[in-house]
Structures are given as C-alpha cells and as structure tokens.
Amino acid sequence: MRTPKAKPRGPVAPRSVLHFQIILLLGIFVAWWGLVKLDIIPQFFFGDPVGVMQRLIKWFVTGSIWTHLINTLIETMLGFVIGTVSGLVCGLWLALNPMLARVFDPFIKAANSMPRLIFAPIFALWFGLGIWSKVALGVTLVFFVVFFNVFQGVREVSPVVLANVRLMGANRRQLMRWVYLPSATSWVFSSLHNAVGLAFVGAVIGEYLGSARGVGYLILQAEGVFDINSVIAGILLLTVFALLLDIVVSRVEVRLLRWQAPVQAQTVQAQTVKTPAGQVQAVQA
Amino acid sequence: MTITMSSTLRPPPSKVAPLAAVELKNVTCQFAGSGGGTYTAVSDVDLRIEDAEFVAVVGPTGCGKSTLLNVASGLLEPSSGDVLVFGKPLSGLNRQSAYLFQADALMPWRTALDNIAAGLLFRNMRKAEAEAQARDWLARVGLRAHADRYPHQMSGGMRKRVALAQALILDPPILLMDEPFSALDIQTRQLMEDELLQLWSVNRKSVIFVTHDLEEAISLADRVVVLAAGPGTRPVAEFNITLPRPREVSEIRMTQEFLELHTAIWQVLKKEVLKSHAHAQG
User: Fold this and answer.
1) ipTM over 0.95
2) Whole-model pTM?
3) Min Cα–Cα distance to chain A from B119, Å
4) A110 and chain B in contact, CB less than 8 A
C-alpha cells in the first residue's frame, strides 16, 4: 500500500541522499580526469580515471586478476575470522577472571600500543611467504580491536540483569550463554567494522613485503615500473571489496541484534524504508 | 504450572512457633564510604517474615530498604548478623526466593517467552515443556499475544508483567519485591497491584515488598514495617493491616479503616521522612 503523501522521516528524503552521493562520486572522477587532462597535475604521478577503468576491465576480461584477488580475500577472511574468534574468546575469558585480567593488563596494553605492522618481517620468517604470514599479521591487528570491545562489553553487562539471571539459578555456563555472550555481541559488532578494514591492511601489507601473488603484490609490481594506473586500480579494487565485506557484516549485525531498540538502527532503516507500510514492518521485524 | 490444593490451605495454628520464611537477626551492613570512612546503611535489624505473610517495608527514600532485600536474597552479605531462610542460615544466593527489581531486569536480547522460560531451562527442564509453562504464565499475566516481543517492544507495564511471570513461574516460596511498580504510571500501577494480589492469593508466598508509597504498602500487605531514616536504618514501628481480603486496591483506599491506618502509620513515617530530609539538606 503506497500512500501518496508519505513524509520522509528525516529532513532529507533517503533517495535524494543517494543521488547526492552518486553525483559526488562522479564529480570526484570528473575533477580528477579534468585536472589530469588540463595538465594541472601530472598524469605520470596521478594516472587518469579512464586508464584506471581500462586496466580494471582488462584484468577481469583476461581473468588475470582472479588468482591475486582470491588470494588476498582468503588471507583477509582468515585473518578476520581467526582474529575475531580469538579476540572474543580471550576477551570473555579475561573479563570473567578479574585476577588474570589484572596480571595481563600491562602486557596487553604494551602489545596493543606497539606498532604491530613491525611484526610483518618476523611473521614472514616464521610462516614463510605463503598466505599464513599475511593471516598472522591480520590476526594481530583484528584481535586487539575485538578483544578490547568484548572485554568492555562483558564489564558493562547490566548488574541488575546479571543479578536477576543468577537468582533464577543460572550456573556459570548458562550465564555465559544467556547473558555475557549476547551482551558482548553488540560490542563485537561495533568493532567488526573496524576489523574488516584491518584484516585487509594485514593481508595487503603482508603481500607488499614479500609474496608471489595477491593484490598487494600486484600493486608492488606496478609501482616498480611506475604503472600508476595499475596501482590505483588495485587500490580501488581493495576498497570495493572492503566495502562489500562491511555490508555483509552489517547484514549479519541487523539479524543478530534484532533485540536492540531501533535507536541506532533507525538511520539505517530510514534509508531502506520507502513506504509507510514498510516502516511499520521494519520496526516490528 | 499446577496449583496444588495444599498450598492454598494455611497450616493450622500451633503452639510451637512455625519457622519464619525469612529472619534477619542483628543484621548490619556497612559500605566503604567515599572519604575512606564507612557508611552504615543498615544497623542491627531484626526482621521476621512468616510463611505466607505479605510484609511491606516502607521508609524514606534512600534509607536502605533495598539493602535489606539484597541481604535477604543473598546478593549482599551483611557485615554482621544472621540471615535465616526457613530456619537455615543463608549461604550464597537464596535459591528459595525470586526477586522483582525496581529497574528492568529482563534480558533485552530474549523474547518475552524466552525470558519467562529461562529459569525453568536453568533447572534443566526440557525446552518444549518449559515453553508450554511459559506460555501459560504469559496468558496469566495477560500477554498471550506478545510471546515473541523483545523487551524494548513492550511498554513498562508489560515488561513488569513479564518480570512477574518470570519470578512466579519458578514457584519460589519467597518473593522479594523492590519498588517493582514505582516506574509505572498510576493507573497501570493499580492494575498491577490488583494483579499481584490476585496471583498471590492463589498460591500464598512470603512476600517482602519494599516501597516508599504508603498507600501501596497498606493496600497490599498483612503487615507494614516502617524503617527509620538512614544512615543506620532499622525498623521503628510495625502495623498489622487487618483489612479484609480479597482486596481491590482502588476501592479499599476509600474505606474508613484504610484512612485510619494511613493516618496512624503516616504519623510515624512522616517523622522519619522529615529527618531524612533534614539530613539530606546537611
């Protein structure tokens, strides 16, 4: 049912936001193209959008990109999953053992504040030049983000809810399943958006420092011969896939966090909801 | 949930004093104060709640009423003194009691049905059976159609009903209630009070009902205990409420007997409230 006078929720209709976004994106490319064509910035260092697009199309038409892309994506996914799970487990474990948490506290702070990318050469020595050194780098980056969020999440569990569930007779394992895990979940998801990006950083930097395939390797090769269009094409490709992975995370988040009041979700929903009937559905879903 | 006949029958009066449901003896609770000293919330409290008795505890805001409930539930260990539950010293959490909190205590990530069934599942009941009982309780608190709602999708009154069902489904002999209806609007509150009385009359439990609302206390309870202004609160007076049951809270408040009781208790309570006020003013 479509009511003709449906008023948008926000001050701006969601659809016109999308229009502006597309215009802005096109504007950036046109400005780039214009600046290069008018020789205001040198094409040698900045490439040109048409060349970049041609490069991307060529990669996909010849299929030469797939081995690199799949390699990078596998490294990213592995780093993301292993880092998230280990961060979740360690976060829960330490948060529920205050004594342990105190002992580990300075070590964790030290490990977190050191520039962990510096481990890349060590990982290359330990795990070789295959995918595992990149996965390890991704894991060290993702782990801490998730870990700190889970740790915080468990500590912020409502004491009333906790007392109530304990009084209802939950044992330790049941407390974990019914209270700590679901409470930590919302914190985990807020960290996963960062974690996606960091997993890509781990994979690409790892490839950059020593590998035989991967998008990072591709970029390094292109840089070596001053092929700036290929470098930019690689960056664009990574950006698109990082965005896709982020969208997947958001989808899962919406599913798993159905129970949350739609305060934060409202802006997200407002963009997708088009009819008043749809709005009712979205709120009740 | 089956209600056995025996539970609705009162035990015959006997010469030997029956075991109290909850007995606090010389209970003192001290907390570490902000300035390094100690703050005595509750001092030397003796309080006895008989089996199947509905006791309301009133006192000035912030006097330590909730502390007493936390002690009775085992969430808080008193600094000194004894807590007996049906004659046995309490160690750890009080498994014979259910607690209705002032704040929302439902698991926000679980539906109404899951929240109510939770306690049964913790006791290793089979899922299907626990859910059947939970559905039954949902119907009893008037929320049959709202089984799949999450707490944020329900009103304050509905959440309180779920919390009530969540507590009562475990059929605990003792019910501890900490201003459970104070956040509700006045109409909803009276409805909930009637509902509580009705549920309680079916299967009389021992209730400690903490409130700062004297009218609520008189309309619900068998006995009203007045606590002194804090710090170091203790009971200063007790009143037996002889109003006939069953009661209808909105109507009973109009009766002469109610007004007399209210006047008598308010005389005592007012002094404590003024003291508490003076203390707060410094």
Assistant:
1) no
2) 0.77
3) 5
4) no
